[in-house]
Every structure is written in C-alpha cells, then in structure tokens.
Amino acid sequence: MTDTTTTASVGAPKAGFSLQSIFRRPEAGAAAGFVIILIFFGYFGAQNNFLTALGTSTWLNFASKVGIIAIPVGFLMIAGEMDISVGALIPAGGIVLAMATELYGFNIWVSVLLSLAIAGAIGWVNGMLVTRTKVPSLIVTLATLFVVAGLNIFVSKKLAGTTQHSLPDAGPVSEFLFGDYHTLQFGSDDASFVIFQSLQSSFFIWIVFAAICFFILHMSPWGNWIAAMGGDQQSARNAGIPTNRLKIALFMLSAMAAALVGMTEAVLANTASTTTQFGMIFNSIICVVVGGVLLTGGFGTVTGIVFGTLTFGIVFQGINFTTFDKDLNLLFIGALLLIAVLMNETFRKMATNWSSSKK
Amino acid sequence: MSANAPILALRGVNKSFGPIDVLHDINLEVRAGEVLCLLGDNGAGKSTLIRILSGVHQPTSGTIEMDGQSVGFPTPRAAADKGIATVHQFGGTFPLMSIGRSFFVGVEPTKGWGPFKTYDRKKANEIAVKAVQDFGITRIDDGDRLVGGLSGGERQSLAIARAVHFGARVLILDEPTAALGVKQAAHVLRIVNEAKRRGLAVIFITHQVMHAMAVGDHFAVLIRGAVAADFKKGEKTREQITDLMAGGETMADLEATIEGYMASHDGHPPPPSH
C-alpha cells in the first residue's frame, strides 16, 4: 500500500494541525491546567520574581524530585496498582549511599549501585506479595512502608549509631550528576542572558527519566501491556501478557526511582536522614492524578504526569511569591486536585466520545 | 478427514467443585461452519462449560477432543493456541485504548530493532480497521478511536474480528447479545453468520431463544448441569424450546396458573413467589 492511499483511508494521522485534535488528546486537561496555573501565579507573583530564572528554579527543583517518583507511581496506577512505600524508600536510598561510602569506604558508584539494588529488592518483595497473595497493593505497600521505615532507623543505629549520616564529599563527577546547582548563562554580569540558574541535578535526571519512560509507555509495546493490564487484567493475561512479571518490574522501578531521589538529596545536602517522607507519598499521587491518570487503571500518559507535576510544583511553591497568606497553601492544593480531576474527567469523555464520523 | 467431522467434541465431561456436581456427562460436538447454540437458564452450568472449553477449569472426568484427538487445555493460553477464542459479554476489550492498540494487545506489531523496537501504530490501525470492516462494520474507519466510544455491538464485532484475525477455529460467544438493544443484537447476529460463513465453528451461549433461532444450526439445552435436549434446526418450535429451558414447566401451564389466580382475586396478578 502506498502512502497516499493510507493517509486517505484508515488510521493515519489527520494531515495538518487543528485545535480540535489537541483537545481530543487525553492529556489536554493536564496541559491546560498547567497553563492556567502558570498565568495565575505569573500574574500574582510577578513582583516577587516568580518569573525570573531563579524563581522558576525554585519550583522546578521541587517538582523534579516528586516528578522522578510520580512517573513510575503513575505507571503502577495505569497498571491498576498503588505504591506508597516510596515514602520510606527515599530515606533508604540516601542512608545506604551515605553509610556505604562513609562507614565502609566503598567507591561512590559502587554505593549508588548497592543502594539501587537494595531498593530493587524491596520493590521485588512488594511485587511478589501483590502478585502472589492478591492482597491489594495499597495494603501491601502500606505494610512495607512501615517495615522499611523501621529498618531505616534500626539498621542506621545498629551500624552507625546515629540516624543522621554525613556525606561530605561524593566526588566531583557524582556531585555534578546527582546533587549540584547548575547555571547556564551567556555573557557576563550586566549584559548576561540567563537560560537557567541554580537548577539542581535532579531536574536533568527527571527530564532524561521522563524521556525514557515516554518511550516505554507510548512507543514500545510494553506501554500497551501496562495499559491493558490495568484495563482488564484477565483479558490481558489471556492475550499472553506476562502480567505478574511486568507488575513486579514496575514495583522495582518505583522503588529504585524513590531511592534515586533519596540519593540526589543526600549528595546535594551532604547529609542523609532516616526521616520517612510521608508527604512525598501524597505528593506523587497528586501529581499522577492531576496528570490525568485514571485512578482505577487502564489509562494515563507520561506527558500528562509531567504536566501534573509541573502544576503541582507551581502551586506548592508559587504561593511564596504572591501576597496571599502562606497558610492557604494546602487549601490551594486540595482545590487543585479537585478541579484537575473534574477537568480530566471531561477531557477523557471528549476523547472517548469523539467519533470519526463527525469529522 | 471429512468436512463433517467435528472440530471440537466433549465426551462424557463431568465437573464438580468439591461435593457439588456442576456438570454431568456432557456430550457435545461442533463442526466447521456450524453454529451450536447452548441454551439454558441462569445457573444451568453454561458458564462452567465455557470455562472448561477455554481452559480456565479442567473437567473432573471425561475428555475434550479436537479433530478427533483427545486434548487438554491446562491454561487459557493453551486453549487459545489451539484456536479456541472466547468473547465475553462486554467484548473483553479495553475502553480507554485505541482500536488499533486493543486489537493487537499482547502481539503488537513493531518496527525497529533490539531495545528500540517501537509499536507500529500505522500498521496496527490499518490491519485492525480492515479486519473489522471485512465483517461489515464500515462505521469503524479510524484505528485511533478509543474502544470506549464504540457501541456495545461494535465492541463485540471488534472482539470477534480480532479472534478471527488471530486464527481462531472455534469461537465461543458468551451471551454476546444479552446487554444489547434489538438493533445492536441484530448487528452481532449478522457477525455470527459471517463467522460461520468463513468456516468457523461457533458456540453461541444465550438464554434468548429468538437470537438462538436466528443463527443456530444445532441446539443444546442445559438444565441443572445436564444436556436436557440436543436437536437440529427446525426440529422444535420456539415455545417448545422456551418450555425446555424453563425446566419442563410449560409456559402454557404458567399462564393458566396466573390467569386462574387473577380470576379469583379481582384481576390482581399473584404476588412474587420469592
């Protein structure tokens, strides 16, 4: 079949660009929400440098850490599962790195691999428990959240005698890659043109990670498997998809992503603490849901999750740039979540009901 | 092998779950290009029979034969590999996936190599749309449409077209018309006829006698786990089949009882008995 016939007949993308086709995309809701929030805080926060490179870095740095966790958590939600054990895996990633280098004198890269391996093992346990016992993943990961949180403190005290570990010098290359502030500007002082200023390494990790995850979910066949698994697990298994193995792999991915965030924080702050980050559990779920992922599984996009994370980052940090009372922060986040969910529902209906006969 | 030999046959199949006997001594055959209608009221054992045929359950005793050879279906996958495709009431498709993607779930066409293999959306959409249109559903012309936007009948058709495309020889349709309106049901029945014309053996499970009579060549009525009647097209009337399904209590008797009650109670119908 030649190209001309296919564009004329079936399946091929419509030629040209139309506003309508943008709105049909299910992630349109998340993107529109981001634009509205950006304009809102851009207007109210303009006098307080919200729109400067430094101001932008404030919320991008915050968003990047949630974002790295939100994507694999989103994958799990698309596959019909939850992972809340990430709250304990963030400190676990940091303290394993700190103890391995400082206490046992391992090379930094060996420590990084060790930390990822331990996180992967915990993720594997999560996955095995969920697939073998059929206990809902919310309960399984709630249990592992506390088990790992307890282990963090217990092992820290046994091995190092403290819950605060220092990581004074991780080496120049790893500092650069994991925890440093990066600035790109052209020209000098007065005539300088700033591209970005004081962006943390985690931001760049997030961008690369998001690109890889975009490939997995939207371009490789695996993405289809993940969505099918969340849409109808029985049908997916009957279609020959290795649902158990795929699910275990996804739990390992989210655990390792959380450990990675813990490591970037440890390297940046030169210290690692065992404090469980309960806030990050909710933050990652909010980003995923604001990003248009269906809570019951079967649908979601990486682009949507990234927009959801950006929106969340602005709302969380943006209030500090405005004249609003800072105490309203959490109220804003609650309202954002509610509005986003309603909006996503509308856009999803538009995408579902769209029929080609109307074109 | 003669064209008339059964593709799939059940010989003396029994199934019990612990002390409860669900199926007793089931003997059924289905041939290529033939529609076997499996009729029965709720709880007659239809679902269990389908699960045995599709590899979800194993028979307690008795054998399943394909092309005259005894076979076992230890898993749903094994049944599917032998060409047995089951389409459930809601089509077993994924509402928020595109037509192309749901058509190829698990066997996605790819392009590229190694870890950079990508899902070939264009090819998947083309094949899926063509397969569905070949079944006469010309309204589906865009593989990017989401399955959730299709009507119930179109979803059934998509699922049947998918099964046929992937080489099904025996098509098991589990109550495909139960949740559909009159027009949509007619749509699905046409698809069933098309599948039959292509030489598939179809096992059509329903409790709607009208739908069964519209497409069936061969009928089996299940009552409390046993085949109560096994007859060919034209051998029994609709009333007789309905009576059989109701477990022997004839409709005429039931009507007489109700009328008698109403006559003696100032025209009020009897209260529900349960």
Write up this protein:
- The complex is a heterodimer of chains A (359) and B (274).
- The two termini of chain A are 24 Å apart.
- Helices cover 69% and strands 6% of the residues of chain A.
- Chain A has one domain: Orthogonal Bundle (ABC transporter involved in vitamin B12 uptake, BtuC), CATH 1.10.3470.
- By secondary structure, chain A is mostly helical.
- Chain A has a two-stranded antiparallel ribbon with strand order 1-4. Chain A has a two-stranded antiparallel sheet with strand order 2-3.
- In chain A, a hairpin with a 6-residue loop joins strand 2 and strand 3.
- In chain A, helix 4 packs parallel to helix 9 (201-219) and helix 6 packs antiparallel against helix 12 (243-269).
- Chain A has helices at 3-8, 19-24, 28-44, 53-78, 86-103, 108-133, 137-160, 172-178, 201-219, 221-231, 233-238, 243-269, 278-290, 302-318, 329-353, and strands at residues 164-166, 181-186, 193-200, 271-273.
- Chain B is of the alpha/beta class and 274 residues long.
- Chain B has two domains: 8-236, 3-Layer(aba) Sandwich (Rossmann fold), CATH 3.40.50.300; 247-274.
- In chain B, the strands form three sheets. In chain B, strands 6-9-10-3-11-12 form a six-stranded mixed β-sheet, sandwiched between helices. Chain B has a four-stranded antiparallel β-sheet with strand order 2-1-4-5, covered by helices on one side. In chain B, strands 7-8 form a two-stranded antiparallel ribbon.
- The N and C termini of chain B lie far apart (53 Å).
- The chains are: A mainly alpha (359), B alpha/beta (274).
Outline of this structure?
The complex is a heterodimer of chains A (359) and B (274). Helices cover 69% and strands 6% of the residues of chain A.
Supply the key terms.
heterodimer, A: 359 residues, mainly alpha, ABC transporter involved in vitamin B12 uptake, BtuC, two-stranded antiparallel sheet, 15 helices, 69% helix, disordered N terminus, B: alpha/beta, 6-stranded mixed β-sheet, 4-stranded antiparallel β-sheet, 9 helices, 12 strands, 34% helix, 25% strand
